[in-house]
Design goal:
Radius of gyration: 27 Å
Shape: globular
Number of domains: 2
Number of helices: 5
Strand order of the largest sheet: 4-5-8-6-7
Largest sheet: 5 strands, mixed
Order of helices and strands: HEEEEEHHHHEEE
Mean pLDDT: 77
Number of strands: 8
Low-confidence stretches: 13-35, 70-82, 84-91
Distance between the termini: 82 Å
Structural class: alpha+beta
């Protein structure tokens, strides 16, 4: 009888162990399959990922953008300009200028924002007028207070900005052309703010629907995303990606 009982106990232990091993194997397989599966993201919310064709939990759009698979966990180092700190929170980069000066970037940023705001209203003539005001501001600024390296960087950004603003100012009635050069001007203004700071808090916003997702960036003074590339057609298309303080 003791032998029979012992055999039953041994058999039960073996069954439990076998079931546990099966569960672990299935779990491992599921994790492996999930890790090896291709992920896709939402065009509007890249942080939302899943299977291709499934719906974004934020806006309901299909997940269509393939997510690049990486095999390394090494984090890229961010080169931070002197006088700045960079903090990343939930995908939004915060750039803090810790040595803000009275250097005249604020007037440039202010007039750039006027161009942005007229584009959000689909006002091509107003955009041209605002661009001509910015040209005057750019021509009146001086870099004499800067050291040699900073002066060279400032003058390079300024030269680019002037060329792009001229296209915007000379093309009233051609709002698509103005928006194309506004995207180039936006990069100049972002580079200027990163290099020299600004007294006001501004945001860098991004629209993945413009320029095939490559050039749809702009600077804004409002927390609300208001799109200058599509105006009334898609006024709130886009998302914030950085805060410059």
């Amino acid at each position: 009888m003791k032998k029979i009982i012992l055999s039953i106990v041994t058999l039960a232990v073996m069954c439990v162990s076998c079931n546990q091993n099966n569960k672990e194997t299935k779990t491992d397989t599921a994790v492996t399959n999930q890790a090896g599966a291709e992920l896709y993201s939402c065009p509007m919310h890249p942080e939302i990922t899943g299977e291709k064709g499934s719906e974004c939990s934020e806006c309901g759009m299909e997940l269509t953008e393939k997510v690049a698979q990486t095999t390394t966990t090494k984090k890229e180092e961010t080169v931070v300009p002197a006088g700045q700190t960079v903090v990343e929170t939930r995908g939004i980069i915060k750039i803090r200028n810790t040595n803000k000066t009275a250097f005249p970037t604020d007037a440039i940023v202010l007039n750039y924002l006027k161009i942005k705001n007229t584009l959000t209203k689909d006002d091509s003539k107003g955009t041209a007028t605002a661009a001509k005001t910015l040209i005057t501001t750019l021509n009146s600024t001086s870099s004499t207070s800067l050291d040699s390296d900073s002066k060279n960087r400032y003058n390079a950004i300024l030269a680019d900005a002037k060329a792009h603003v001229k296209h915007i100012g000379d093309n009233a009635g051609k709002i698509d052309h103005q928006r194309e050069y506004f995207s180039l001007l936006s990069k100049d203004v972002y580079d200027l703010i990163k290099a020299f700071g600004t007294q006001q808090t501004v945001y860098q916003d991004y629209c993945p629907m413009y320029g095939e997702g490559k050039t749809g960036y702009w600077i804004s003074e409002t927390k609300e995303v208001i799109n200058p590339y599509f105006g009334s057609e898609m006024l709130n298309c886009g998302r914030r990606i950085a805060i410059v303080q």
